[in-house]
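Extended Data, panel c. Modelled sequence:
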Amino acid sequence: MHIDFHDQTNSVAEEHIDLIDRLLTYAAKEEGISPEVEVSVNFVDNQNIQELNRNYRQVDRPTDVISFALQEQGEEELAIIGEELPITLGDIVISVEKAQEQAEEYKHSLAREFGFLALHGFLHLLGYDHINESDEKEMFARQEALLNDFGLPRS
């Protein structure tokens, strides 16, 4: 899997980017996703993610992670035909400030929080959701299993 990282904050350590790269590659393999897919992971500040949250979800406050799936077929959209082009799953946007706040609040490492947020966003790109209780249980169970098996358990 190809992951394109963009750090608009210029503050994310290379070790955290490497961890996310390895975690998402692992998750993709475990989910049976082709190694040819592409994903982007973007690190932003609270102001930028608040603008995205307001514009796309109509929620005017910062959030920790937002995903934009490119493979979802909306009503009246034509399906993409052919497999010549690499499949781009979409974009994951993570607030560095929220990640830092939540790592402190939950008393675990920033690496664990970045991993959790990146994987959460990635699972959304794969179609997992938590709109209702049964979907939430399924998504969160899968998320915890992947994090634990990878070696990033809740501590």
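Helices lie at 14-30, 46-57, 96-105, 110-125, 133-150. This feature is highlighted in the accompanying rendering.
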